[in-house]
Amino acid sequence: MNTLFAQPCAIIDLETTGGNIARDRITEVGVVLIDGERVERLSWLVNPGQPIPPFIENMTGISNEMVAGAPPFPELADELLATLQGRLLLAHNARFDYGFLRNEFRRHGLRFQARALCTVKLSRRLYPQHFKHSLDSLIARHGIEMPERHRALADAEAVYRFLQIAIAELGRDKVEHEAAQLLSQPAELSSLPAELQQQVEDMPDSAGVYAMFGEDGRALYIGRATNLYRKALGHFAERKPGHKSHEVRIDEPVARVEWRESLSEFGARLLELQWLGRWQPVHNPRARMMGEVCTLQLQAGDDAFSRPVPVSARDIDFTRTADLYGLFRHAREARKALAQIALAQGLCQSVLGVEQVTSRKGAPCAAYRIRRCRGACVGDEGADSHNARLLAALQRLKVKPWPFEGAVAVAERDEVCGDVVEHLFDRWCYLGSRRNGGALEGEPAFDIDYYKLLESELRKPDRDLSPQ
């Protein structure tokens, strides 16, 4: 039998104008379709809509004149998608070919999802005694005749012949076993309910945010991932004794999964914060603390000593109040930070109100007894000196004033499809997001995590920022 694997396969190779998955375009597609005993070969030249660099033209033999009359990708998209749909995709360096295909389909409003097997990785497993596994190395090592190297169909044919040779040399069971190991997922999808299994299968191999919901509709967990499909599967993986996993184990039955792709790390983190605040998932302890924000505000006492006092965002507007120090999730965290500052700087915890005074006025505090206080509690240090040192110590915690006259938008740009998503902020408050100039969506919020996220983004020299 010529069957390489039990399922329909498509060995694919692409020629492109270059190696940039977002900027460059496809110039040729070659496919070897395998359905049991039936093998079919298909090839298309593609007009990339941009010049082919001389280096690429010399390497592939595909010139600008050759593709000038060829159809652009949109004219081939439906036919190619129907050809590849439902097949196992094989390619030498599958990440390159699969990524180019997904992006090209996406540019034209089509979603392409397939399981992909990289034959570079397969060759490494089948022939570990060899160091090189490029297609040139395989062709030379196995004596594969190649009249048109760097043409799409010829390269796909070379991969097909390599697989046939590997089966002849090592046996079908060995080849299919190693392929199965490469394709194996971190979880047995067959153990999941059919509807949930389909939802997970539909998740893309791209960055974004996902949410898992229980049978009663409660949100169980929200996560962020560079590969949504792989990350979600990790939650269902069987844990072997002694095996450590970074994925949260969801013990309750998961009924459904929602997900949304993101254009950048900033957008993914922002969306994660929105979903955490909206759904309060039971397996995200951080979500239970969202919205509880406090800071330290200096207040003068009758004795002329300044004291940082925890104040809540419910009581004052952090975005309009000057001289606030630190953002904390609750007053206990603020007092802990103040106690650490006091010990580090030799400030008096009794004067600052961190240590409860249990003895008569003028008695030394506990830190004074171990020489961690300069004696404000016993009159050895005056208010002016203590206040100045306190203010200097607090400067690194000072909440930064809003650096703009009004609202600003942080933009994300999709280099593939050209979409622009703008996230609007004003005085550290998140106002909402809009895509391609549309209506504002999202729930306005102010939180310590929003502040930290935006403050970090504003420090980047290459940020995409515009006043509103």
TrEMBL record:
Highest taxon listed in the record's lineage: Bacteria
Reaction(s) catalysed by this chain's protein: DNA(n) + a 2'-deoxyribonucleoside 5'-triphosphate = DNA(n+1) + diphosphate
Alphabetized Gene3D superfamilies for the sequence: GIY-YIG endonuclease, Ribonuclease H-like superfamily/Ribonuclease H
Keywords: Exonuclease, Hydrolase, Nuclease
EC number: 2.7.7.7
One Pfam short name: GIY-YIG
Protein's name in the database: DNA-directed DNA polymerase
The organism's taxonomic lineage, starting at the top: Bacteria, Pseudomonadati, Pseudomonadota, Betaproteobacteria, Neisseriales
